[in-house]
Specification:
disordered C terminus, 20 strands, 3 domains, D-Amino Acid Oxidase, Chain A, domain 2, alpha+beta, binds flavin-adenine dinucleotide, FAD/NAD(P)-binding domain
Amino acid sequence: MTESVGGRAVVVGGSISGMLAARVLADFFDEVIIVEADDASYVKSARKRVPQGEHSHVLLQAGQQVLERLFPNFITELIADGSVVADFTNDLEWFHFGNWKKRFESGIVAVQQTRPFLEWHIQRRLRQYSTINIHHNSLVVGFILSADQKTIRGVKVRESNRVSDNDIMCDFVVDATGFGSQFRKWLPDAASQSPMETVKIDLFYATRFYQTDSSKLGWKNLMISAQLPDQPYAGVILSFEDNKFGVTLGGYLKQPPKTDEEFMLIAQSLPEPHIHEFLRNATPISDLHTYRIPSQVRNRFDRANNMPHHLVVLGDAYCRFDPLYGQGMSVAALEAELLGSELRNMKDRGELDTLHNRFYKQLVRITQGPWDMAITESFRHPDISGCRPRGVKLMQWLTRKIYRASANQQDVYLTLAQVMNLTKPSSAFFRPTLLPKIFVQFSSTDA
Ligand SMILES: Cc1cc2nc3c(=O)[nH]c(=O)nc-3n(C[C@H](O)[C@H](O)[C@H](O)COP(=O)(O)OP(=O)(O)OC[C@H]3O[C@@H](n4cnc5c(N)ncnc54)[C@H](O)[C@@H]3O)c2cc1C
């Protein structure tokens, strides 16, 4: 059992994954430096290098729970500052697989805020740690390796106000640089041995924020899910702090809207009129922002045997999910906690040399459920290609039954909400009390 490793750890990238990893590392290292390419931002607005901050972000139950463990009282602080509190099943009007779900109080509480608001709060709590320093305007341009090339000894940093690069030497590095991670470029030998699982979804995201008189709505969130292949568009309205409503439209294998009119037309094409009606009555308070997600990608570092020691890659740099499932930040939080337990389980400091191997094996376990959930749906479209898991047709048959049954079977919906919130594994559906409700109801039409 290791209480302290000592020395210095460097986290590359100071977004959600990086900040949570830094918080965990502060329990084990004397000093933690976050190296972040962006400016120091002390405002609750989107950053240049995190363009997805312009889009609505859902924080799942599992993510909320980790944040509360890492920063006690964190959720209370969010709520006190204006986050919206919603019951996942009662406050969401959800059209899914041809049915509106019956709403009921589940006790699954979603705490809702815009992405920059959440990031600002995490950064505020991080600043209370005297051993964590954030170096802004500092771009990491490579790793420094030991003479035998096996161990990471530091990072090369290009600061915007300096002519020459600066080396930061350290005992441990976390790559939390997001989907654009240069890991494969900087460490080509290790990268060449670690396969990537890729599913090409070519998804667009288009988001605009609105204000409206919420007293007339009768819900806090509204979702019209895609149903591939026939219904490639999805639409979501989420309520956030300051009476803001984020309206996101997404489309698989589709072009994003270029104008507000095109945004309206896509909303109009959804199978139910609610989002289009909302847009007609609400006041826009932001521009329209679009984002393209070509693929879901998971790096199988667990399959390479030459990954550098004293380095772990996590967050979006390790795995990028389909954002419509709202999993990225919550999985990043679980990954940061995993890093903490791997450090805590070390018998002595020598085990730091092999920590990455244990960590990557566990990362596969943590990401498997959310990964399967998203890609199972993707592969309903014949033109979506990529690493198709064995048994996907059976999974699709099963999930269709679960989704349909959850429309009016309360305990099926509750389990679905728990699985989606990453607080229960998908095996939770296989309970003797639940199976008849999943299978009986639609057996005649849905075989
Ligand atoms: C459109 C969209 C919608 C999403 N919606 C949701 C949602 O609803 N719920 C959810 O949980 N997740 C969502 N996600 C995913 C979520 O944004 C990420 O999972 C989350 O931000 C964690 O990412 P990260 O911290 O690993 O990387 P990022 O957030 O991408 O941050 C990477 C950081 O590294 C820094 N950096 C990069 N390169 C360098 C370098 N060389 N040197 C120094 N710093 C560097 C960047 O400046 C940045 O701060 C969404 C993603 C997208 C694209």
